[in-house]
Design brief:
By secondary structure, the protein is of the alpha/beta class. Helices cover 40% and strands 9% of the residues. The structure holds zinc ion.
């Protein structure tokens, strides 16, 4: 491993596993589409005012964070809500007006077809491989079986997994996220069918949500998961199970997750994950409303003391826990090795993302000499 060699001038390959397509639309595109459709624009109707209105300025809570979507979702209402990642894209198939059978299904398939065509076109044009994760929404379990159907039917075209998102806080902890949760059966069926599973948990909700996601829903990755640190036992279980955390630094503040974190330490959970060599990746979540790019997320972590070695490790972990089919995953690892100048890096004996125990590099990166990165320190 060549961790100490400056990587500044090397082409970087970054792996992102958690970015929502409807949260990753250029402000310019939203502005253009809203004008074309004659939709009301915020402020004086300028692009600048739209940007200001869409950006979540200061942390509050997840509900407030999601409110920002209300401004621009009318522009893409048919495609709502879609989520992206550089390697895996989340497309949550949400039937905004959906009640008519037949028509509804056709619309949903059409949307997914269009998304997949667009991503394939983008891959050819720019070389960025993007895959799709279809997202069930908490509180709308009536859609979940159809999401699973789409996962199966579009497997060969780039749908690689299923997700469950939505405001954990809005559903009663005892009702919506328990054994009787109807989504649980969908996730069990997904596991049986060999469909990869990730779940948003421990962001607004407590550590118990992470436990349920892993133990009851069979999640292989956790979206966010910061509040897992509120319960050492659950955290240890995640380490044992080699759960990958899809962390989203800026989003974690803007959704208020950091404010509700009742961990004794006031440090960001990503720092603890790093120290414990937990598998985690770095993601943007919703760049439209966070107004960040992936490079901003990296810069924030570097201000907290992360070195290129830590970022590199996160990228390899994300690649190893991506939901790509084994051959494509190997190809991705090979590409990363080449980009980062590594000679020896072997895939874990099983290429399944559930047991990449051999993912640690032969020379582990040094622990970060991080004290406490503050949110105020972000710019
Ligand atoms: Zn998310």
């Amino acid at each position: 491993m060549i961790f100490n060699e400056p990587l500044k001038h090397r082409p970087k390959s970054r792996v992102e596993l958690h970015v929502h397509l409807d949260g990753a639309i250029r402000h310019e595109t939203i502005w253009e589409v809203m004008r074309q459709k004659g939709l009301p624009l915020p402020g004086n109707g300028s692009l600048a005012d739209l940007k200001e209105a869409v950006k979540v300025q200061e942390p509050k809570d997840l509900a407030h964070f999601l409110q920002a979507f209300g401004i621009f979702l009318p522009a893409i209402v048919e495609a709502r809500p879609l989520s992206t990642e550089s390697v895996c894209v989340c497309v949550s198939v949400n039937h905004v007006n959906g009640s008519v059978n037949g028509v509804k299904e056709m619309v949903v398939d059409d949307i997914l077809d269009a998304v997949l065509k667009g991503l394939s076109h983008g891959e050819q044009q720019f070389g960025t491989k993007v895959r799709v994760i279809l997202c069930c929404i908490r509180g709308h379990s009536e859609w979940s079986w159809e999401v699973l159907r789409l996962c199966e039917e579009y497997k060969e075209r780039g749908v690689v997994g299923i997700d469950l998102a939505g405001d954990e806080g809005s559903s009663s902890e005892n009702e919506s996220f328990t054994k009787r949760d109807p989504d649980m059966a969908v996730f069990e069926a997904a596991k049986e069918k060999g469909i990869h599973r990730t779940i948003h948990a421990g962001e607004a909700g407590p550590a118990d949500c992470v436990k349920t996601a892993v133990e009851m829903f069979g999640a292989e990755r956790i979206g966010h998961g910061y509040r897992v640190l509120e319960d050492e036992e659950i955290y240890k279980m995640c380490l044992r199970e080699n759960i990958h955390f899809e962390t989203c630094p800026h989003s974690s503040y803007l959704t208020g997750s950091m404010q509700s974190l009742s961990s004794p330490s006031k440090r960001h959970p990503i720092l603890r994950f790093t120290e414990d060599e937990v598998s985690f990746g770095i993601n943007t979540d919703d760049p439209t409303v966070t107004d960040t790019r992936l490079s901003d997320e990296y810069k924030l972590l570097m201000r907290w003391g992360f070195t290129e070695a830590h970022l590199t490790r996160a990228n390899f972990q994300a690649a190893l826990h991506s939901f790509l089919p084994p051959a494509e995953k190997k190809e991705l690892i090979d590409q990363l090795q080449e980009a980062y100048g590594f000679v020896h890096f072997t895939l874990p004996s099983t290429s399944s993302s559930t047991s990449p125990s051999g993912t640690r590099t032969s020379t582990p990166p040094p622990k970060p000499s991080v004290t406490f990165g503050t949110w105020a320190d972000r710019s």
